[in-house]
Structures are given as structure tokens and as C-alpha cells.
Amino acid sequence: MKKNIVPILLLGLLGAVPGAAQNKLAINGYFSFQAIRGGGGLPSTAWSLGNVWGGLIFSGEPAKGVTFALEPTFAPGESIDLTQAWAGLAINEGMAIKAGLFLVPFGKYNLARRPYETPWVSDPYPIGFSFPVNWREVGLAAQASISGFNVALFVGNGLAEGENPASGQQFRDNNRNKAWGGRVGLALGSSLEVGGSYYRGKADANNSRSIKMLGADLTWLTENLKAGGEYVRAEIENPSPFGKGVSEGWFGEVQIRYGNWIPAISYQHQRTDDPFHGPGFAGPDVPGSGLSLDGTRWAFGAAYKIGANILLKLEYDRERERGESAWRSAVRVQAALYF
Fold it and tell me: Which residues are CB-neighbours of 136 under 8 A, at least 6 positions away?
């Protein structure tokens, strides 16, 4: 997070807390840590402890129709980051607007990937491949829900170009262009929702080359079953003589609630082809060595709820790149606490 924007957001939002304390103020938090065997180049029998992550969520309504959310996050060895820092207006029960730092409404997973919100330990493809993990935006956002029709729109700084599609997160605008996008969802009955997402913005400092994204998602949700998935296709214009870069991926999943247990299975695929970016990229005058990825992953998981506040997870992943004969495996164990 850029240091020059953090004090402004913190002072503006924390200034609303004293009034909210007399009206509606909620303070929640979460914490997680995990152990990994076989991931990140480790030997298949070696365990690594880490990925400690925690956060606090301050939210409230200091005056009628005035809302805010502030979510600082913490990790050992890193400076304090922010997932949310916005103030907004609730126009009525189904419509609201907000300004500040917010999670981008592109698909559904990006809005609900905190450790206590999902039975998975690792993010599925294409999260972290076609767009950044924990993708956030500084700007304006609006949402409305009318009779099963849900719309979320935003405008803001947009993504910058980086070594790969997932490295474009920024908190100050690198050009004059304002990116825009959002998601439209439609509930088809009480259990099924389908959605489509779109994003468009300029990626380079010269304000000349664009990034476009299309997304689709589907969710079937009942009391004991959740099934669905998401698809993303991202394209970035590259300077001549390089062709455009393309990154696309999707995942499908099934989760079953059986008492306190949530067994789950997911199949995921991602592909990235980009002749201009990649390792060594340092701007439009220093192209990288290119990107060529085509991977598949199976994920098998089980989560166990202890009361309403603790979630213990076990996940086994098998993945490989196209053309490889051997699968790479990893076991992940995570404990997540919500309060």
C-alpha cells in the first residue's frame, strides 16, 4: 500500500468512529496460519510453517444512511496493509455508493476469500494469475439489488502493467485514464445465480495500451450444497511488433455441508501467453522474456467448524503444466479464527 494514501484514508474513516460508537459500530477480526508440505519447491516430505495473516474490520453507520468500513491487515515482516478503507451512502435497502479503497466486484471469489469465508487454503486458478490476489481499487463504487437482479459498478485507478497479469495492483494512478467495470448477477430461483463481469482500463504510463477482462460465474447454493465456478479472460495490448498478451482460467467446485464438516473438490485450469511481459520486464523499453503457462490443478479439501468462530482445514493439491508427465503435490493445513 502506498504510504501517502494510507494516512488520508485512515484519518477520514477513523474520524467517523466516535460518532459510530454511539450508533452502530461493529468490530470484527480474523487470524490464520498454515503448514505446507511439498509446496513452493520444498521436498515432498518437508513441512513449512507460515502464511500468518490477520485483520480487523471496523464498520458502522455513524449517521442514518452513512456507512464506512476499515480493514487493516497484518503479516509478520510486512507493513500494515489495507483491504478496505471506504465511506459510503446507503440510499435505500437495495442501493448504495461508496468512495475510497474497496475490493473489486469482478466475479464473486475476490470479495470473499478471507480464511474464515472459504474451506480452501489456497486460491483457485485464475486468482493470482489473470488478476491480482485480493484485487482492490481506489475510486468510486455503486451497487443495487432489485428483484433478484444484482449490479455492482466501479471506476478507479485501474491496473498497471507488470511482469505478469497478477502484479498490476496499484494505489495511485500511473496514467490519466480511469478504469471501469463491474459485475451483473441474476438469481434464477432460490438456489441458482449466474453472473457476468467486465473490466477495461489503460495499463501503461503513456495511456495508450489497454487491459480488457471478461468474466462469468455460476453458483448453485442450498442448505447443504454449494456448486459452481468462475471463468476469466484477460487481454493486454502490447507494443509493436509484439502480439497481445492473453491470460485465461477457470475453476469449478463442489462443497458439501455435513454437520460440522465441509468436504470439497475443485478442478482448475489456467493459461497465460504473453510475448512482451514476463521475467525481466522493467517497462515499455525493457521487455521481459515472455510468459507461456498452461497448468491444471486438482484440489481436494475438508474443513471442520469448531463452534461459530474456528475453521480447521486440510487441502491436498495435484498440479502440472501442459506437457509434463509428473504431477506436483502439496498438502496444506490451516487454522482460521473469526471473532
Answer: 82, 83, 84, 101, 102, 103, 104, 169, 171
Q: How far apart are CA 125 and CA 135, in angstroms?
A: 14
Q: Is 12 helix (H, G, I), strand (E, B) or coil?
A: helix
The Cα 161–Cα 203 span in angstroms is 5
Phi, psi of 11 (to 5 degrees): -65, -40
Asked whether the beta carbons of 262 and 230 are under 8 A apart, the reply is: no
Nearest-angstrom CA–CA distance, 60 and 79: 25
Are 114 and 103 in contact by the 8 Å Cβ rule? The answer is no
Helix (H) or strand (E) holding 239: none
Dist CA 220 CA 164 (whole Å): 32
Q: What is the pLDDT of residues 62-118, one digit of tens each?
A: 998 999 999 999 999 889 999 999 999 999 888 999 999 999 999 999 999 999 999
Task: Spell 149-187 as b/e; 16+ CB within 10 A means b.
Answer: ebbbbbbbbbbbbbbbbbebbbbebbbebebbbbbebeb
- 221, 236 contact by CB (below 8 A): no
What domains are defined for the chain?
6-338 (2.40.160.10)
- Nearest alpha carbon to residue 152 among 162, 164, 140: 140
Single pTM value for the model: 0.90
